[in-house]
Amino acid sequence: QTFNDNVINNFCLNKKVHNIKSEFFSQNNKTFWSVAITYDEILKPEEKPKQELTETQKKLYQKLREWRAGRAEKDGIPVFLVAKNIQLEEIVKNKCVSLECLKNIKGIGNGKTSKYGNEIINLVKTFYEQNT
């Protein structure tokens, strides 16, 4: 059997997650999975973009969301730990094709830049090469 991790991902959407710990245990010849999440509630919703995205920008935004979903699945983490929607929007608006550009986006520091930066800028560069 498999576990639908969308339940956990949806739960964590409006929370600042500090730690996730999971364990398997057996009772009466049945196996269970327990998950403990340490988190803080996020009181303020993410800011909405001040300007609408163009059709081309919307396509790139969708490509970034697809990449993020695949990367989160590969890493076994919720998608928001890779990047939040507002961060993806900023990548699109700023047309980030350098690591320095990524570092200037709120919430994307050295850790995320070193882990995901090259993948993101290659995706953005390739998108614009194919769509301009």
Task: Explain what the structure shows.
This protein has six helices and two strands. The protein has helices at residues 6-12, 55-75, 79-82, 85-93, 99-103, 110-130, and strands at 15-27, 30-41. It has a two-stranded antiparallel ribbon. β1 and β2 form a beta hairpin. α2 packs across α4. The longest helix has 21 residues, at 55-75. The mean pLDDT is 86.
Topology at a glance:
Elements: H1 6-12, E1 15-27, E2 30-41, H2 55-75, H3 79-82, H4 85-93, H5 99-103, H6 110-130
Antiparallel strand pairs: 1-2
Percentage beta strand: 15-25%
Q: Note the run of SSEs as H and E.
A: HEEHHHHH
Lateral arrangement of strands in the main beta sheet: 1-2
Helix coverage percent: 40-55%
Structural class: alpha+beta
Task: Specify the overall morphology.
Answer: elongated
Report low-confidence residues grouped into runs of 5 or more. Answer: none
E-strand count: 2
Radius of gyration: 17 Å
First-last Cα distance: 46 Å
Mean pLDDT: 86
**Main sheet properties:** 2 strands, antiparallel
Task: Supply the number of helical segments.
Answer: 6
